[in-house]
Design goal:
This protein is mostly helical and 505 residues long. The chain has 21 helices and no strands.
Length: 505
């Protein structure tokens, strides 16, 4: 058991290290690429980039229960090294993903006549359709190795995918820069993305087959229960369809209610948010498999101890994001792209607040995914999505981009924020949920105090790259001190320090 635990920890650590290296490389390249993009192409093209990505994420709704359900179904066979069952499951999932890809392509083509109602841009209509078709092909291409990606995750080998993704992104960013410098052509720019996706898939498939040669074995098919998998896919799908309606409709609504150029403005801020979120997601995805294995062991006390530690960590990261983004966002955009791409302070704050509230409750969804708790909350996200869309349209007409983003925060607070912890504590921890709320209120108070200290500490510091770094350090200290004060004597802080000590040995 100790050996398995050490192996699990080692895999999680390797996934985080390699993931961080990949994410850092992608972050640097995307920053350079975005600056060159805006130098040679208009903000309208940037808006199209963000808008079409969101439209096609919405189109991919059917996939949304599949990824998690596939991963959850592979945990036990991988742990048991049951190769015939693994091969049979992967063949089954490959068929589903293929049908799914063809279905998305058909629905995507059917959507073309409706683009004119979504896109508010001065760009040529025929060009907009060609751009859209290229985005559609790129989306569909990614499904043909999705079952292999899920298998690597179940084996806790996400680092392989991250390394391939880094290499592909490196090639893509270089291609994008060459295209912009030589041709200044958006057609070729998007075509380079499609080519890189196909190359990425071929490389990932080849590496996966080499590391796991049994995937090519012609093993006898093993029968397995398909009904539990279908039920899991359905429950996950219903839950996550709401997630897409919330997280991937903002750009569509901004384009329809404000303008496609406004999507371009928002995408600059979102690039920074998603870059940081990418670093956080590496930790989350690396931990989920371990949490799933821990849950299978049935040690509820240990699960709760780890949960409390993770909650402290994520709320601290959320607080850093809220304060840092609120006070530094416009400084970073000014240095990076120029002052003509700035939002007003209230819009900047609501972007930062959405980051905060999402990450403060991330441990809840991590444990829900790891323990397969989708059936109990499958309709919750649909309710949240309905609230979000109605409020987004109403507030968007009154307050523009700020109103649409405010609706996202309100819908989250009104639903998942208070409801999901009840389910988790009842089903998994069998402990009073009051413990959770006591901790969250304590961390929220530390966040508010950190925001006040940081605001008054940096408000008179002028702009500039050096000043930006000084402000960042002040903000980090301003947030860290209140968090240390409220948690230094807590059990979760002791669990965290013990955890770090054992990892150093």
């Amino acid at each position: 058991k100790t050996q398995m635990s050490n192996s699990r920890s080692k895999n999680a650590l390797l996934n985080i290290v390699f993931g961080y290296a990949a994410q850092m490389g992608i972050l640097i390249l995307s920053f350079v690429g975005r600056r060159i993009f805006l130098r040679f192409l208009s903000i309208d093209y940037l808006g199209i980039n963000g808008l079409y990505s969101n439209i096609l994420t919405v189109l991919s709704l059917a996939e949304l229960g599949l990824d998690t359900a596939v991963l959850y179904s592979l945990y036990k066979p991988v742990a048991d090294n049951d190769i015939p069952l693994i091969n049979s499951l992967l063949k089954y999932f490959r068929k589903i993903y293929t049908v799914l890809a063809l279905g998305i392509f058909a629905v995507g083509l059917a959507l073309i006549p409706f683009l004119k109602f979504i896109v508010k841009s001065s760009l040529n209509d025929n060009s907009l359709i060609i751009f859209y078709l290229l985005f559609l092909v790129n989306t569909v291409a990614s499904y043909f190795v999705a079952h292999k990606v899920a298998f690597l995750s179940a084996c806790q080998e996400q680092r392989i995918q991250k390394l391939v993704m880094l290499s592909s992104n490196l090639i893509l960013q270089v291609l994008h820069i060459i295209v912009l410098l030589i041709w200044k052509n958006y057609y070729v720019y998007v075509s380079a993305t499609v080519v890189t996706t196909i190359i990425n898939n071929l490389i990932l498939n080849a590496i996966c087959n080499k590391i796991h040669p049994h995937l090519k074995d012609k093993t006898e098919p093993v029968s397995f229960e398909k009904e539990p998998i279908r039920n899991r896919i359905y429950s996950t799908f219903v839950y996550k369809i709401g997630g897409v309606a919330i997280n991937n409709t903002d750009n569509i609504l901004i384009s329809m209610l404000v303008s496609t150029a406004a999507v371009g403005f928002y995408s600059n801020y979102y690039t920074l948010i998603s870059a940081i979120q990418g670093f956080i997601a590496i930790i989350s995805t690396s931990l989920i498999s371990g949490i799933g294995n821990l849950g299978a062991g049935g040690d509820k006390k240990r699960q709760y101890e780890i949960f409390s530690m993770v909650l402290l960590f994520y709320h601290f990261v959320a607080a850093l994001g809220l304060v840092g983004f609120s006070l530094l966002f416009n400084d970073v955009i000014t240095v990076w792209l120029g002052s003509k791409y700035l939002f007003d302070s209230k819009t900047v704050f609501i972007i930062a607040f959405n980051f905060y509230i999402t990450n403060a409750i991330t441990p809840i969804w991590m444990y829900r995914e790891a323990n397969g708790l989708f059936d109990q909350v499958k309709y919750l996200m649909l309710i949240r999505a309905a609230i979000n869309i109605v409020l987004s349209v109403a507030l968007g007409k009154i307050c523009g981009t700020f109103g649409i983003l405010l609706a996202t925060a309100i819908s989250l607070i009104a639903t998942n924020f208070w409801y999901e912890p009840n389910i988790l504590f009842k089903e998994i921890f069998e402990a009073p949920v009051l413990n959770y709320w006591t901790g969250q209120i304590k961390y929220f108070s530390a966040t508010v105090l950190g925001l006040i200290i940081a605001y008054y500490s940096v408000r008179n510091i002028p702009n500039g790259i050096i000043m930006l770094l000084i402000k960042a350090v002040i903000i980090a200290v301003s947030v860290s001190l209140p968090f240390f004060a409220v948690s230094c004597k807590s059990t979760e802080f002791k669990t965290a320090t013990d955890f770090l000590k054992t990892r150093r040995k």
